[in-house]
Amino acid sequence: MTFDDEDTPLAHAAAAAVYVRTSLKGTFPAPQNTRVLTIANQKGGVGKTTTAVNIAASMALGGLKVLVIDLDPQGNASTAFGVDHQEDATGTYDVLVDKEPIADMMVLAPGYESLWCLPASLDLAGADIELITQVTEDERAFRLKMALDIFLSEYDMDYVFVDCPPSLGMLTINALAAVSEVLIPIQCEFYALEGVQQLLRTIEFAQERLNPDLAVSTILLTMYNGSTNLSTQVADSVREYFGDKVLTTAIPRSTYVAEAPSFGQSVMTYDPGSTGAVAYLAAAREIANRG
Ligand SMILES: Nc1ncnc2c1ncn2[C@@H]1O[C@H](COP(=O)(O)OP(=O)(O)OP(=O)(O)O)[C@@H](O)[C@H]1O
Ligand SMILES: [Mg+2]
What we know:
- Helix 2 crosses helix 14.
- The protein is of the alpha/beta class.
- It is globular, with a radius of gyration of 19 Å.
- The chain contains 14 helices and seven strands.
- It starts with 8 loop residues before the first helix and ends with a helix.
- The protein has a seven-stranded mixed β-sheet with strand order 3-4-2-5-1-6-7, with helices on both faces.
- Strand 6 (181-187), helix 10 and strand 7 (215-222) form a beta-alpha-beta unit.
- The structure holds adenosine-5'-triphosphate (ATP) and magnesium ion (MG).
């Protein structure tokens, strides 16, 4: 038995990552106009960030130009892309509070050719209150929209994903005011649908008061376990309620999905053959094909 590099699991994973990087290129249809999706659910830990990161990574590996806006002070999406978001890093906060241009603040995600991240530094936690106390009422909900409009008039992007924090405060309101599509990840567990009603009311409010173009376009079932009755019951009732907005692909629970961010990676490069990666790739294709 040898311990050549090529035989180690790490080398195997690296080879798989190279394969996925080269084989996916050019396999995703580009939308006619930039599609901008907010990934929202005020319930914590339902898979918002995991979905933003892995759908964006799939599309970028498929050759599309993608921007992920990390709107969560926790900065989990920035971490998952291996992008610096320490205290002195610039990013979403500077765009929202100081009106810095997105193009100056975004960074190319390490290892990608066409995936950018607008990082969430820790000071974003204060942005909510600063928007309310320092910005005029007619502007405070629209700071992200103003920045995105300027950015998209100058830069040609295929997809923009906005990863929201688990709350319905000013940050999420900015996200809802700035996009035309909402993607709601729903975790297949008992309390899943309770928070969704409140989220739908907030989206309705945003639609009436801030953004008539806003609509829930996509529902994604996450952490699905087909072997439990509970998971299949939740999935059934979500499909009954939301109809064909629900993607056919449900994302299964997968250890690799949960492990990938600690290596600054998406599961798409960390373990492209895992069930989680295969499911996220299929979900990304569905979204792209529906566009
Ligand atoms: N399909 C999956 N299989 C296994 N673990 C998963 C899966 N999806 C997400 N997780 C794990 O569940 C936790 C919550 O996921 P994630 O951070 O994406 O949720 P979130 O909605 O963004 O959370 P928050 O509301 O805190 O922002 C994370 O530890 C993540 O790694
Ligand atoms: Mg998150």
